[in-house]
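This is your field. Please look over both lines of this record.
***
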Amino acid sequence: MQGNLKARSIRNFMAASAVFLAMGGAAFAQTTAPAAPGPGPQAGMRHHMEHGGGMWFKSIDTDGDGTISKAEADALFNKIDTNHDGKLDMSELAAYHKAMMEQRRAEMRAELDARFKAADKNGDGALTKAEVQAGMPHLAKHFDQLDTNHDGKLTLDEIHAGMQRMHEQRMQRMPRGSQSNPAAPSSSGG
């Protein structure tokens, strides 16, 4: 499921980038009414914005007013256009996407580290099963799987290693074409 979400996110990013290029950023400068509920492309966009795509929007909406001005769109374009030729090519989009993914991973790691520290009530650098259940309950069902040395405690290193293993397993389950080049168009066509 996570692999499908990643592939769908990449396709959505590429589609949004294509729209951005085609519109020259001007379409983002206009304020639009919220999409009406129901089927159709607006409902799909609303669903995407409510379930993770909002981070992309918020990263562009630097003044936080709920709209993207032409100046904000132009600033994003200029950030991605690393060779400053006034055009975005696939390598620039891929590099931008990679940088954003790395930044998000670092943010997620910092969030996990902070939550781990808060859950570690006795401050010994490891979480007992009780500490995990109280402070990080979503990890409790994976406790035995993550506790690789079987000492009845989870260290931050064990959690990070376990998450890396789960990520690698998800990547192995993904269709081959969707993980090789994030800038390559999807073979599914959408």
